[in-house]
Amino acid sequence: MRELVPRPLAQEAECRQLKIDHLTEVVSMPLPPPIDLVHPAALDPCALATACEFRTTRRSGPGGQNRNKVETAVILTHRPTGISAEAAERRTQGENRRLALFRLRLELALRVRRPLPPHLLDPTPASAPRSISTSTSTPSSACNSSSDSASTPTSASASSSDSTPCSTSTPSSASTSTPSSASTSAASSVAASDRWRSRCKGGRISVNPEHDDFPALLAEALDLLASFGQDPKPAAAALGCSPSQLLRFLKLEPRAFALLNRQRRQSGLHPFG
C-alpha cells in the first residue's frame, strides 16, 4: 500500500501564478517564498531535465541513415507549465538533447513571468536591496554540457503573457504622486542577480545569445520589465545598466523585443523602434 506523505502546510500556502503564452491560461504552482525562487529558465540544465518529460522520435530530411532511421530527435516538455521544445537537426540523441534543453530554457524565459512581489517594489523599503533571483551552479558533466558551450536556438513564435503593471507612488513635498520617480526609487531597492552582475560591467551587457547564461538573463530582464509596467527605465536601473543597453540586449532575441512592444501596446504605451 502506497504511503501518502502530507505536504507542509506552509508550502501549500505559498502558491503563485505563472502566466504563459495564452492571455487567459495560467499555471498555478506550489512554490517556496518568491524571493528564493529560481526562474525555471535559470535552473541548471540537469535540474530542469528532471522536471521534464523526455521523448524521442525520428525526423525525415537530410542527415544520413543515422538521423532518418534512429530516433535521434528529442522532445522535452516542462511538466509544471506544459511548455515544450525539440531538436532534431543533430546526428546524435545526446547533441539534440542538449540543444532541446537550451531551447526549452529560452521558451521558458519568454513565456513564464515571475514579477517581483509588491513589497519589494516599495520605494521606501525597510531592508537592504534583495536579489531578484538565485544563482545556480554550472551544468554538471553528467549532462554532457558546459557553461561555455554554445547552442543555436530555434526560431519559433513566442506568445506573451498579459502582465499587469505594478503601480507605485512616491509622495512629493506637495503630497502628489509621481509614478516615474516612484518606479525609479523602487528600482533602487532591487538588486540584480550575481549572474547578471557578472555579465554587466560598467553599465554594458556582454553576453552571446547562444551562451548557456542567456536564457536566465533574458528571464530576469523580462521579469523586471513586467514588474515595472514594461518601463525600461526603472528595470534598467535595477539591473545596473542604461535603458538603451537593456533594449539592445532584448534585441538579441527578436521575440523578446517583440513581446515587450506588444505588451506596451496593450498597456497603451508607445512601442520602441
Spatial order of the strands forming the largest sheet: 3-4-5
So how many helices?
Answer: 10
Determine the structural class based on helices, strands and strand pairing: alpha+beta
| CATH architecture call of the domain at 14-111 | 2-Layer Sandwich
Poorly predicted runs: 1-36, 133-179
The end-to-end distance, rounded to whole angstroms, is 62 Å
Helix content: 25-40%
CATH topology of the domain at 14-111: Double Stranded RNA Binding Domain
Account of the protein in words:
- This protein is of the alpha+beta class and 273 residues long.
- Among the domains are: 14-111, Double Stranded RNA Binding Domain (2-Layer Sandwich); 186-273, no CATH class.
- Helix content is 34%, strand content 12%.
- It has ten helices and nine strands.
- The strands form four sheets. The protein has a three-stranded antiparallel sheet with strand order 3-4-5. A two-stranded antiparallel sheet has the order 1-2.
- It is elongated and about 55 Å long.
- It starts with 8 loop residues before the first helix and ends in a 7-residue tail after the last helix.
- Mean pLDDT is 72; it is low at 1-36 and 133-179.
